[in-house]
Amino acid sequence: MKSKVIRKNPMQVPSPVGKYSHVTIIPKDAAMYAFSGQIGIGQDDQLPAGLIEQITNTFKNIEMILAAEELDASHVVKANIWATEEIDWHHFYQQWVAMFGDSYPSMTIAYVSALGLPDIKIEMDLWAAK
Fold this sequence. Notes:
single chain, alpha+beta, two-stranded antiparallel sheet, 5-stranded mixed sheet, 2 helices, 7 strands, 23% helix
């Protein structure tokens, strides 16, 4: 990518209520990547019962799918997050900060009554640019 993804929070807008950027600018020469929702299934093809474990596995799966396309967290421009129960933000943000450092992509979070399979508690899909 000739120019880098830019993240910012305009001073005219209230500060983000979480660890995300209000604006992510994608350079015109970038290739866009849309990733299907990643869930907390483990390398053993088992889905843990608890949300904490599903969050941890989801972040591992995101790292692997990005790496498969020779991308990393710096290329992520948008994250959409769906959860079926209240997120433990302390644990979630530990994973989030470990992945993104202090350069956060834009984010949307929603609580929903169900996801694609009954035992899935969290799903994250990403958009990336390189």
